[in-house]
Amino acid sequence: MLCWIEPDLKQFPWFEPPPAGALERAQSLLTRLGAANTKGITPLGRRIADLPVHPRIGRLLIEGQQRGVAEQVALAAALLSERDPFIRQPREYGERRTAQHRSRSDTLDRAHALESYEESGRTDSEVGSLNTSAAKHILRTRDQLLRLLKPGREQAASGSASDSSFLRSLLAAYPDRVATAREPGSRRGLMVGGRGVRLADEVALADEDLYLCIDVDGQATEALVRQASAINRDWLPAEELSTEQRITFDPATERITCLRQVSYDGLVLEESQAGAPGEAEIAQALVEAASTQPERSVPTDNDELTNFRGRVAFLAQAMPDLKLPPIGESELRDLLPQLASGCRSFADLRRAPWLGSMKRLFSWQQLQTIDREAPERIEVPSGSHIAVQYEAGRPPILAVRIQEIFGMRETPRVAGGRIAVLMHLLAPNMRVAQITDDLASFWANTYAMVRKDLRARYPKHSW
Question: Three-class SS of residue 349?
Fold first, then answer.
């Protein structure tokens, strides 16, 4: 159609329009094959359109002719276009077909098997046994494809150069099927576009980090590759390679790292440590990571910070008329940019001055009110200043030894006198002996019984 009409296929008066996604994928593939561009069809595209085969196969034939391996790629094109001539032996339940040899290309192996059959009539090969009728049909198709190619002046390649030219021709036809192994020696990989792939047992590829997925069975989670062909990194077009520095957060070490990545069409080929980025970039990356994982980046073991948040939450509920600003997760996220400056890890961020930054959310008058109406500590008759435990929705708790409050007649009150502190009265072993929010009643009615029990257990103490 690109040979006949304007390049914008969306303007074509379709009788039944194809799905938009299918049209976009088709145009994208033609662009990758060099058959089309933003202006429409290219001279190479017109040559491909003259061949009655799929554009991939047309690109393979033309590239193979230019590289001097026209006969081999024509045979491969026939194999990829026609019914598989290799007999699949029936197998019992659970048995797998596994490649008995190692090679750089399943497609090249299959072409060699057909060449051997043509020369000697041999039907057995490392790839499998040939169906002679199907094999003859493949060879006739090859001859037809060769006749369709316009004669070229390219010199025929031979030996290892021939194999290399063959594999490079496959790359020209399958530029969007490049894949990398997930790890050295793994049969699982990642293909251009982010699709996961797995080499089938019959694939003969061994320890190749970079390869083409020639025959792919699509699956929901991981595509099965039935034919693969290795490629060399330096065969990839330089204009398709990109190098960039990526600042990322490593969840394992909780640190910001800077990686240098070399990619082909979005597929990462190489990754290495890069030089240290600027402080602003590090801080931004740390803020983004911390925003999604506040439970790991906010210091949960900082008693002062926890206590201040508890005091504010308690007082905001007990005295709503004060209109104190909240300190929830969104407010903590808003503090991250100023706290992340100079930090490279969550550990650094947890050591940042959170309490000071948090207090700057309040006016001087509000901070004075918080200290007065929800005091951090309360002085008791012994002279000790005991920390008060605050929690929103519950009365604050003062855990203190009984002997330290001798002489305290009334229960301390907070929040403008609205709420009595819940007293956890402790024995000498620091365990709770009595809980009360009415000290006057405790001294008048309960203390005598408590004193009798404690005196028996702790006779050396004054009761």
Answer: helix
Instruction: Write out pLDDT tens, residues 435-455.
Output: 999 999 999 999 999 999 999
- Describe the strand order of the beta sheet including 422-426 as a list of residue ranges: 377-379, 385-391, 394-401, 422-426, 432-436
What is the rounded distance in angstroms from the CA atom of residue 159 to the CA atom of residue 187?
Answer: 29
H or E stretch covering 18: none
By CB atoms closer than 10 A (0-12, 13-18, 19+), residue 320 is exposed
Q: Which two tokens stand for residue 178?
A: 């490049």
Residues in the chain: 463
Question: Which residues neighbour 174 within 8 Å (Cβ) at sequence distance 6 or greater?
Answer: 56, 212, 213, 214
Number of other CB atoms surrounding residue 436 within 10 Å: 17
Q: Report residue 367 as tokens.
A: 């901070």
**CA–CA distance, 113 with 131 (Å, rounded to integer):** 12
Distance between the two ends of the chain, CA-based, in angstroms? 102
**CA distance readout (Å), 318 to 194, 368, 439:** 54, 16, 22
pTM: 0.67
Could you tell me the strand order of the sheet in which 241-250 lies?
A: 241-250, 255-264, 267-273
